Amino acid sequence: MNLKRLPLICSVAAVALLSASLAYWGMQLFKPKQRPIAAAPVAQMPEANMDAARGLFGGAAAVAVASNYQLRGVVADTRGRGSVAIIAADGQPAQAYPVGAELAPGVSVQEVQPRFVILSEGGVPKRIELMSDQGVSSSGGLVQPPMGGPQEPPPPVPLPVPMPAQPAPPPLQMAPAQPPTTSAQPSGGVPPVK
């Protein structure tokens, strides 16, 4: 080796070490503070809906009940076409809706039966029952309840009045038994009067 190059090699190595050291300490001095890392939220699995699973193996799937709609009347066609449901929505006056008509955005009449109507609300079937059984005539047809006028509430049912509690009567006490008395009657006479 050439001894003349040794000081040059040592000075290059010293400059490289000095540069690496300055870079390391400069990064340590000017680096941002480390923020605490929050754990990623664990997504919880939703509970299995048993009502939805009932329909998988032939069971009847449950249908939700729509609460803000009232079925006031039904005109059901026996052939399944032209059926109309008379529905009051959110306390508004009742209107006639044929099958497929939209009551509100995302809510439409899916099926009309003589005793109930199935609405589709966002793809979820909801069942509305006919308001009362008063609307069925003896011939089997449906009679529409009066529309427009105020409905009279049913008469109040009187509640039974509770009777005040009476104390039990005291137990009966029997008199001590007395031996039977026999009185001698004179023969042929009238019994003595006491």
Structural class from helices and strands?
alpha+beta
CATH-derived topology of one domain: SH3 type barrels
Report the strand count.
Answer: 8
Runs in which pLDDT lies below 50 for 5 or more consecutive residues are 134-146
**Rough shape?**
elongated
Strand order of the largest sheet: 1-8-7-6-5
The first-level CATH class of one domain is given as: Mainly Beta
Percent of residues in β-strands: 15-25%
Question: Secondary-structure element order, as H and E?
Answer: HHEEEEEEEE
Instruction: Specify the CATH architecture of one domain.
Output: Roll
Question: Treating each run of at least 4 consecutive H or I residues as one helix, how many helices?
Answer: 2
What composes the largest sheet? Answer: 5 strands, mixed
Secondary structure: helix percent: 10-25%
Mean pLDDT: 74
How many angstroms does the end-to-end distance come to?
168 Å
Radius of gyration, taken over Cα atoms and rounded to an integer in Å: 48 Å
Structure, described:
The protein has helices spanning 6-30, 50-54; strands at residues 64-65, 69-75, 84-89, 95-98, 102-104, 107-112, 116-121, 124-129. The chain has 194 residues and is of the alpha+beta class. The chain has a domain at 65-134: SH3 type barrels (Roll), CATH 2.30.30.830. A hairpin with an 8-residue loop joins strand 2 (69-75) and strand 3. 15% of the residues lie in helices and 21% in strands. It has a five-stranded mixed sheet with strand order 1-8-7-6-5, with no helix packed on it.
